[in-house]
Specification:
Shape: elongated
Strand order of the largest sheet: 9-10-8-11-12-7-13
Number of helices: 30
Helix content: 40-55%
Oligomer: single chain
Distance between the termini: 51 Å
Length: 993
């Protein structure tokens, strides 16, 4: 590196300077008094501030390679790819793509383009479960932060998902967010200077919504909240709950979001797979957070739909499956089936007795309030008995939640929340407790709320009813186990079949008692004495804290303390505390609905835990257990689940259950309980005679057809993915193609003694223990101390925990590239020869050329002037690497097209070259480099114009500002490598040769 003292000049963004004994690149935000610098070839973690007034800072130029730094035929390709993988400030129009550890699909960029259209980003991202809403929100956040349009970031989510969000932000987007939870706030406050807030406008945080909504923390948060907010599971903040603690919690969440949204310059991203519960009011409140007009404007008009389309993006699986035809891990289909069983005669006898009890107690109620209380308590008993005998026993010994209701309407609201699965209920993470059955009988509150004293006859009736409940509980206890519990028996057979087929199932249950009951029996029966292949079984329910759930799943799916891999034959039993947000696709690939949800959306959420991006099984399975002679299951199947599936198949649209569903279910259950209508409940058409059920199906079908028509007007369908993909492909090409990254990683690890070996699944393994110490430590840190050995590299965009994906943004691949680049740029004497697989020079004799040809590896730096939303123009640094080649001598070069230059990287040596000759020849070429520098400057200017045109195309597509946009080359291009290819001599063949 050479230096020239020019202490009075201002240093342009992207220029090179020498300070503190090394070379640096000047970054944006630098001023004449304070330079923000990054070491040449360094990472963002190495950025430093330097005061030119106090320290010596001089301009610098990049030193040419040494003629003696000769490598073999692979040297140029390795150095080029290592350089490109290391770029974290690419020159393309998507500024964040070079610095994120995720390879987005084209459809995932559509919300980003929508966001770029807005001065203040306000979007509701409502894509299907499992197709990447987190990535889409993260891409927008990363781009806003990279462009400087946002200073900080906060994610509001449930505490159960906080750690997952923090990991996603750090692992995929390089955002190091602080967790703000009840368990962390004490430590955070102790670490914060007295009188200051835990929150800073330029910070990054993942915050529990329920924690921060409390009055104690809310105002401080609102005063210091960053200008970019992501709200996960946003539907839970506007649910139509109107009773008790649930109502207060929902109202507090909405009040918090309303206060955040009222600041018009704050970016707000709402994320949910279920934006519409079937009720219009909650959806209007949700979408109204983005723009007040959306709260009241009719959506059945063109004007209303066009306005909604500016803020709303929603795609179904069918919309995006074509984006996964390149081998990316996304299931090609979901194999669904219903599996029936017939109740054991003892179980059937108890169910009949419960139905008779329900009919008698509801009919004998004294007043409207008591009737509704008894209605819900007996319905709770019916549902728990349909779930498991364990849940029924607990219900019979638990007081009913509706007991505290003062009016029939309040009893209905409480009953719907605790017994049903209303579409607008809050997150199900803690809604798996068994609802109670027991109610006061002889004495208690009347419909008017006054106390009455029971007569001797009332007391006798009270005793009889208590005895009846006790007897039913004793009968339920006798049903434990697969002998009398045909549902459990069928489950054991079905799970065994799935395991034998190679599937790893999740069994979803409605109640904690049922999940524990199922898990206990599966453990005993699947691992009985003499079992050839034992099965690991674990249960996760709402009784566990979010951290305990993560630990329990990790114990089932991760390596043990000795580093042994998780058992392949494994079963997870869970309640709906895991039906939202948690990613289980790496460890499981089948879902079994042990209990029917009384809301089809819940089934979608359950199945979405495995049917999502990153799933390595091509066809996932979803099985539904139901009792062929259980009237409760028959009602749920025929009124809700089968209708939902039929409408989805006919229209291609999956829409929420209409508001009429609750009244329809009520009507059909009343027919079962009060009138005993049970003759043929398993037949598909039975309940169609019920007028309210017919109205439900008509409303449901109408909603689906209307949604199908409206979707053609959504904004995301007006953005052509092909156009987006073209720009993305250009960015990817500049940063390193997938094939290039895979080949580089394998070659580099082979040269560094990692001994790569191909695997049957694609990819390869490598021995990290044989790598150089520095690289070995970095790999271990990236994968974790218990990672599998040897390290597994997957030829796919994603990899399981503790393994690596062959993509440029994977931490292990990036570490290999950084090591190769640093070793090549260091002085040869500092690093052992075998640890320098890439070299800056080379002479290759090959049949790939007919004339002497020189290839140069060139790095260009650019200053990007990007128009900002506030009308200003921001300066940013960008880098690009290109290979160029010419035939002949430097003073009269014949420049090759770019594709021919790149092809030389694959040229193979056919004859050895004398090292002394090679060194002398490279020295001659290096001495003549000044003669070709004008051409390299011209190429840099042309590349700048091409990049500027790409920025303009993307900004035009997103209707973003163009005024002030400019891409300016900074200084002379750096020549990192010089490689000379000479024709291999042809020797005569045959007699007399």
């Amino acid at each position: 590196m050479t230096t020239a003292a020019q202490p009075t000049r201002q240093y342009a963004v992207g220029s090179l300077v020498h300070a503190r004994g090394r070379e640096w690149v000047v970054l944006p935000d630098s001023t004449p008094d304070l330079l923000v610098l990054r070491p040449l070839g360094g990472a963002d973690d190495d950025i430093a501030g330097v005061l030119p007034g106090l320290e010596t800072v001089v301009h610098a130029t990049f030193a040419p390679p040494a003629p003696s730094d000769l490598g073999d035929q692979q040297a140029a390709g390795l150095l080029r790819t290592a350089l490109r993988i290391g770029f974290r400030s690419g020159a393309g129009p998507f500024r964040s793509l070079a610095s994120i550890a995720v390879d987005p699909r084209p459809y995932q960029l559509v919300p980003l383009l929508m966001a770029l259209r807005q001065d203040t980003v306000r979007l509701l991202i409502a894509d299907d479960v499992g197709i990447g809403k987190t990535v889409e929100a993260g891409l927008i956040a990363a781009e806003l932060l990279a462009q400087g349009d946002a200073r900080g970031l906060v994610v509001l989510c449930s505490p159960a998902l906080a750690e997952q969000w923090r990991a996603e932000l750090y692992d995929k987007f390089g955002v190091d967010a602080r967790l703000v939870l009840p368990s962390t706030i004490g430590r955070l406050e102790r670490e914060t200077p007295y009188g200051q807030s835990v929150f800073r406008p330029d910070g990054a945080y993942v915050v529990s919504t329920d924690f921060i909504k409390s009055p104690r923390h809310r105002e401080d948060f609102l005063r210091n909240c960053p200008d970019l907010v992501i709200v996960d599971e946003a539907h839970s903040c506007v649910s139509d709950s109107t009773v008790g603690a649930s109502a207060r919690s929902s109202q507090q969440r909405y009040a918090l979001l309303r206060a955040l949204a009222d600041r018009t310059d704050r970016h707000l991203l709402l994320v949910t797979a279920t934006p519409h519960s079937g009720k219009e009011e909650p959806f209007r409140r949700l979408i109204g957070l983005l723009d007040d007009r959306l709260a009241s404007l009719p959506f059945d008009t063109d004007a209303g739909r066009r306005l909604l389309a500016e803020f709303f993006v929603q795609r179904r699986r069918a919309d995006i499956r074509e984006d996964f035809q390149d081998g990316a891990h996304f299931p090609s289909s979901r194999d669904t089936a219903e599996t029936a069983y017939t109740l054991h005669r003892d179980y059937k006898r108890l169910l009949d007795e419960v139905l008779s009890y329900a009919r008698e107690t509801v009919r004998a109620a004294d007043g409207a309030l008591q009737q509704r209380q008894r209605w819900w308590s007996t319905l709770a008993l019916l549902r728990t008995l349909s779930s498991s005998p364990a849940a029924a026993v607990q219900s019979l010994n638990t007081r009913a939640g509706v007991e505290e209701a003062d009016t029939p309407a309040e009893a209905d609201r409480t009953g719907e929340r605790t017994v049903s699965d209303p579409a607008d209920s809050e997150t199900p993470e803690s809604a798996d407790a068994v609802p109670g059955t027991r109610l006061p009988t002889a004495t208690g509150a009347t419909a008017t709320g006054t106390e009455v004293t029971g007569t001797e006859a009332d007391a006798e009736a009270d005793d009889e009813e208590k005895a009846r409940l006790v007897a039913m509980a004793e009968s339920a206890k006798k049903l434990y186990g697969p002998t009398r519990d045909a549902k459990l028996k069928k489950l054991i057979t079905t799970v065994s079949d799935l395991l034998d087929e190679g599937y790893r199932p999740i069994v979803f249950c409605r109640y904690i008692a049922t999940a524990d009951y199922v898990a206990d029996h599966l453990k005993k029966i699947l691992n009985k004495k003499g079992t050839e292949h034992p099965v690991a079984v674990a249960s996760v329910t709402g009784e566990l804290s979010p951290d305990q759930r993560v630990t329990r799943i990790a114990e089932l799916t991760g390596t043990d303390e000795d580093g042994n891999p998780a058992p392949e034959r494994r079963v997870l039993v869970a309640t709906d505390c895991l039906s939202e947000g948690v990613n289980l696709q790496e460890a499981f690939d089948a879902v079994l609905h042990y209990d029917l949800a009384w809301n089809p959306t819940r089934h979608e959420q359950r199945e979405g835990r495995v049917d999502r991006f990153g799933q390595r099984t091509d066809v996932v399975k979803a099985l539904t257990l139901y009792g062929a002679d259980n009237p409760v299951d028959g009602i749920v199947l025929n009124v809700l689940l089968r209708k939902h599936e039929r409408i989805r198949r006919v229209t291609g649209i999956s829409v929420p259950v209409p508001q009429e569903s609750e009244s329809a279910m009520q009507a059909v259950f009343e027919g079962l309980i009060l009138r005993g209508e049970r003759a043929a409940y398993e037949q598909e058409g039975l309940f169609a005679q019920e007028e309210v059920a017919e109205q439900l199906e008509i409303a449901w079908q109408s909603s689906a057809e209307r949604e199908k028509r409206y979707r053609s007007r959504y904004a995301q369908l007006t953005i052509k993915k092909d156009a987006v993909a073209a720009e993305v492909d250009e960015v990817r090409a500049a940063l390193g193609t997938g094939e290039e990254v895979r080949d580089f990683t394998r070659r580099a690890l082979g040269a560094l003694r990692g001994m790569p070996a191909a695997t049957k699944q694609g990819g390869f393994t490598a021995h990290a223990d044989a790598l150089p110490q520095g690289l070995r430590d970095t790999v271990s840190h990236a994968l974790g101390p218990r990672h599998p050995r040897p390290v597994v590299f997957h030829d796919a965009p994603s990899a399981p925990r503790g393994e690596a994906a062959l993509t440029r943004t994977d931490p292990v691949v990036a570490a290999v590239a950084r090591f190769v680049l640093d070793a090549a740029l260091d002085d040869a004497g500092k690093v052992p020869e075998w640890q320098r697989p890439a070299r800056r020079c080379g002479v290759v004799r090959t049949k790939a050329v007919e004339r002497n040809t020189t290839l140069l590896l060139v790095r260009h730096r650019f200053q990007l002037n990007l128009p900002a939303r506030d009308g200003s123009v921001r300066e940013q640094l960008a880098e690009d690497a290109r290979v160029v080649a010419y035939r002949g001598r430097p003073d009269a070069p014949e420049w090759l097209p770019e594709d021919e230059a790149v092809a030389l990287l694959e040229a193979r040596a056919t004859q050895n070259t004398d090292p002394k000759f090679a060194t002398e020849h490279i020295a001659e070429i290096l001495a003549a480099l000044p003669a070709i520098m004008p051409e390299l400057r011209h190429q840099s200017a042309e590349l700048g114009r091409t990049l500027e045109a790409s920025h303009r195309r993307v900004r035009t597509a997103s209707r973003a500002r163009l005024a002030g946009l400019k891409v300016v080359p900074q200084g002379d291009p750096d020549i990192l490598g010089v490689y000379h290819y000479r024709p291999a001599p042809t020797f005569p063949q045959g007699v007399g040769a």
